[in-house]
């Protein structure tokens, strides 16, 4: 039997984490929520998630810094970024580094699901 894909959710806003986790579970995936990039780096299990949904603007370590640290550590999996403060410079940087999607907040559940399904299927944007 195939293992249920695990989606890591990294966002400092508890409401966003809870909503995203509910959305992820509603489409049949397992959700693991982390309140910061450091929380993910310190607590994530040895097995990488199938995909990550991460906020860009977070205290201590930003989403794009988390992405850079993961790449440096040789950890490669699709990342969907979400931000309430979209920036073309950040979008270009994270997409060039391999991010799968860059979404504004709020984004519709359908848009998030589309990005997630494409990321898990290995499609490039």
TrEMBL record:
It holds the Pfam family Response_reg. Keywords: Phosphoprotein. The keyword Heme does not apply. The keyword Membrane does not apply. The modification 4-aspartylphosphate is found at residue 55. GO terms for biological process: phosphorelay signal transduction system. Residues 6-120 form the Response regulatory domain. Gene3D superfamilies: 3.40.50.2300. This is Response regulatory domain-containing protein. It comes from Bradyrhizobium amphicarpaeae.
């Amino acid at each position: 039997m195939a293992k249920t894909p695990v989606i890591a959710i990294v966002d400092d806003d508890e409401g966003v984490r809870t909503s995203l986790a509910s959305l992820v579970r509603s489409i049949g995936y397992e959700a693991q929520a982390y309140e910061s990039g450091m929380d993910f780096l310190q607590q994530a299990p040895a097995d990488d998630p199938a995909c990550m949904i991460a906020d860009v603007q977070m205290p201590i370590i930003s989403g794009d810094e988390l992405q850079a640290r993961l790449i440096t550590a040789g950890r490669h999996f699709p990342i969907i970024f979400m931000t309430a403060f979209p920036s073309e410079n950040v979008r270009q940087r994270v997409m060039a580094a391999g991010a799968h999607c860059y979404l504004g907040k709020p984004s519709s559940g359908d848009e998030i699901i589309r990005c997630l399904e494409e990321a898990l299927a290995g499609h490039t944007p």
